[in-house]
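Priority: medium. Attachment 1 of 2:
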């Protein structure tokens, strides 16, 4: 899935992604911003990870946002959500 193939209007979050967003205090608008203008993208087994700053969004082939991650010094961590 190329970045151009992502239709923001067709994206929807999985239950896991909603829970992760809530725990990490990330809004849906922030998720969409990362997907629209990522600094880096990675692909693996058909999934695409969009990264911008400390926030990463993983999207499956079926346009489902699988999870939302925060990165702190090469580690993904919930504890720094309030400081981003």
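Attachment 2 of 2:
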């Amino acid at each position: 899935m190329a970045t151009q193939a992502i239709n923001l209007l067709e994206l929807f979050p999985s239950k896991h992604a909603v829970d992760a967003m809530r725990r990490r205090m990330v809004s849906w608008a922030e998720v969409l911003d990362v997907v629209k203008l990522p600094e880096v993208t990675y692909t693996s087994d058909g999934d695409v990870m969009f990264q911008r700053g400390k926030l990463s969004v993983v999207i499956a082939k079926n346009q489902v946002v699988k999870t939302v991650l925060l990165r702190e010094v090469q580690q993904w961590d919930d504890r720094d959500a309030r400081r981003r």
